[in-house]
Amino acid sequence: MEIDFFKMTNHNIYIKISKLIYKIVIATSVLFFLTVYTFFQKQKLDNIQEPQFYCGTCMDEMNNPRIIEMNNPNLIKNVFGETLFKNNCSQCHNADASMVVGPGLAGVKERRDEEWLIKWIQNPQKVIQSGDKYAINLFEKFNKTEMTAFTNFREEEILAILEYIDEYNKSQRAIP
Ligand code: HEC
Known about the structure:
CATH topology of the largest domain: Cytochrome Bc1 Complex, Chain D, domain 2
Strand content: under 5%
Low-confidence stretches: none
Largest sheet: 2 strands, antiparallel
Distance between the termini: 112 Å
CATH architecture of the largest domain: Orthogonal Bundle
Number of strands: 2
Mean pLDDT: 85
Shape: rod-shaped
Helix content: 55-70%
Strand order of the largest sheet: 1-2
Order of helices and strands: HEEHHHHHHHH
Bound molecules: heme C
């Protein structure tokens, strides 16, 4: 009897322990699953970035000048024109009305039409030799200083430079 009783209790303890282990395993896996689930749910939320708007402008655009450039072809062109001007013309010309070696280029688009300007910038001597009155007068006025010919400049490069000159003078006028 005694041995039997001992066996019984022993058996009960085993059942209790295995039930406990079973409960712990279930609880841990539920906990583990919940942690993983909330982690991924949070990551999903973090990845959704709502665009922020400020005064009707996308904050991303305001913070990133490259986006503004991409959305505004004028700006790209002006950077392009400005660089060309500074690298090729600024040693002899100012973008405003003041004289350097050559005349100030402010308002040059009002003085001459585009077609003339393109021909002139690509080859000033050719325009002078063609007997163009305006060109000859200017050449005389500047003591026959020869302007460099930019024969390899494409039309759009010249137009970008001219546009930069316009923009430059507009921006100067905007600042009192
Ligand atoms: C080596 C100096 C020199 C460089 C470099 C030069 N120019 Fe000139 N440019 C002159 C001179 C000098 C004149 C006046 C005419 C003459 O003497 O041939 C002139 C005249 C002009 C005119 C006519 C201006 C007017 O009032 O009608 C334009 C437009 C012009 N240049 C544009 C440019 C551009 C654009 C560049 C750069 C791509 C450039 N020039 C580079 C010296 C230069």
